Amino acid sequence: MAKAKRGFARSDRVADQVQRELADLLHKSLKDPRVGWITLTSVEVTRDYSHAKVYYTVMDGKTREATAEALAHAAGYLRVELGRRLQIFTSPQLQFVYDESIERGLHMSQLINAVVQEYREDEPAPADADSDEKSAAAAEAEDESSDEQAGGDHA
Known about the structure:
- The chain is built from four helices and three strands.
- With 155 residues, the protein is α+β, with helices and mostly antiparallel strands.
- It folds into two domains: 10-99, 2-Layer Sandwich (GMP Synthetase, Chain A, domain 3); 106-142, no CATH class.
- The chain has a three-stranded mixed β-sheet with strand order 1-2-3, with helices on one face.
- It is elongated.
């Protein structure tokens, strides 16, 4: 008999806990000034908990490289502190990866807004819209009359 699946795998729960603990450590314990406003967007942990990819973003794009260097430099310290807080056999080796999804999302949003703006500029004036509706209604009426003349039902 198969077991019923639960909502999350244990590795997902561990990843969530790693994300919470790292966020707390970065906020309260890490004193490196190169790590400024940082947001941890997600964490992926391997099944054996030996490695964790930590995805992050920074508020100021200018500090992106300095933040990456600071996180790489502090990875050992963060791993030790994380091991003290987590109740797992192995504390994961941390790999920090800049998450570009937010920037891509902003770029896509800007592209959509530009297309919408361009569409609104190309849209005819409201007075023209009334005449377009009248011509569309006239074309419909003409189609109906031609159908009646051609023999009526088309089944």
